[in-house]
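Researcher: Can you fold this with adenosine-5-diphosphoribose in place?
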Amino acid sequence: MNFPIELINKLKSSSRVAVLTGAGISQESGLKTFRDAQDGLWAKYNPTDLASPEAFARDPKLVWDWYAWRREAVKGVRPNQGHYALVEMENKFLTFTLITQNIDGLHRFAGSKNVLELHGNINLVRCSECGTYADEWDEESETVPQCKKCNGLLRPDVVWFGESLPRAELEAAVNASRACEVFFSIGTSGVVQPAASLAHAVRDNGAVVVEINAEETPLTPKANYFFQGKSGEILPELVKLITEF
Ligand code: APR
């Protein structure tokens, strides 16, 4: 990949960087995207019909089982070179915020520290009534496992369609995007709000926007730099250039 020298110099002289990632960064780990994750038994369901409070109210066991199946799939998955390159980047900049829409937990698994999970984490489970997190639950149960405290039904700690994003994370993400000198949008189609609007807010603020994606997106015409390809290949190359003297 040919990286313009102005971008390398800009990165070398910057101290505040924010990164937004989406499903694309986990693609090279072998993780299917939300919409692709419809194998066998689940092929007849539309994921948007399973990932909502209404679906859970209608048929909690169906929704629980779908997430249990996805949780199992995530268990066998490991971070890829793209995730690890972002860990190296975090060490390079004074302030580095990694905002992700992914629920797979792979950024933390790789070693990233300042991670804002806007859509939650599939590995965590909480009570749908009182919000208490569960340490353990019976994965084999015939019915949806219940909260030990209030008997409410347990659910995955992810943001469903129609639900608001966690307020503290969203606020931190907006602040980091406003304050950064360089903003990366990586492996996200940029269509889901409000994450998508973060990049636009950054651009309005005069920071440099760098997009890395396998395909062009609605953000591409507004980005200062667009690198087309796999994040697991492009990111390590870029990080090498900015970390060497
Ligand atoms: N490297 C870089 N980009 C890639 C790669 C790769 N190896 N593979 C795929 N992509 C890009 C695709 O071109 C696409 O633009 O990743 C993007 C994935 O887009 P989506 O599947 O729409 O994922 P995302 O943007 O994370 O979706 C946002 O929508 O479905 C909901 O809640 C779900 O968090 C998700 C949100």
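Model: Folded with adenosine-5-diphosphoribose in place. The chain is about 40% helix and 20% strand.
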